[in-house]
Amino acid sequence: MQMLLAFTTLALLATVTCHHHLRCLQGKYHKPSASAEPDMKECRLYSAASCCYANFTEKLTPSPMVKIDNYYWNKCGNLSARCESYLKQLECFYQCSPHAAHWMHPNSSESMQDVPLCQSFCDSWLEACSNDLTCVYKWLTDWTIDEDGNHCRNACIPFKEMYKNGTDLCQNAWEDSFKVSNTTGRCLMLTEKDEVVVNTMTDEEEPSSQGEKPMPAETGKEEDS
User: Fold this and answer.
1) How confident is the model over 5-48, as pLDDT tens digits?
2) What secondary structure letter does DSSP report for 189?
3) Which regions of the chain does DSSP assign to beta strands (E)?
4) Taking the domains of the chain in order of start, what are their residue ranges?
């Protein structure tokens, strides 16, 4: 069993390396480039090529989650276990995935933009958090922030009242970090299957050296000497 796990890890790392996904976002906890982190406490999906250090994942081990640094998750009470698991998946992807930088925000190297999440993931996320409470629509900007952390400006209401549907949740909670996609094989579920999806998308975006056409010759007149 241990040999099988080791082989799987090496195979994943080789695939990631082959497709040049080792670049990381440039946030507070991001590494310069992805590398193996075998001692991760959470986010183990990315242990073969992680953009976060193993000690960061210790911040995600408590349940119920209270806070990461000075950012509180429980301003409207503790989240249910199902809801919390989705938030941890998203946090793990942002902090640790070697693929997140594929969607680096053009105006902020520590942020993502338009990561394509599958519609089914977004719908399941809202279902899991349906009866949990939140006081913000946009989780990055709608808080009052001071030296004591983030504070609600408005009353706490259920997720199902804050967001119309899964699309609304995915495309607004993290600002423009995520977008919803209905295209099979072109969206992420934040599981091990994402590796194949990202590899396919990257291959399609890279120009083929064999299929490149020669540059057209210049047709202008030469200047007189």
Assistant:
1) 343 344 444 444 444 457 999 999 999 999 999 999 999 999 99
2) -
3) 30-35, 50-52, 67-68, 71-72, 104-105, 108-112, 115-118, 133-134, 144-146, 149-151, 157-158, 178-181
4) 16-201
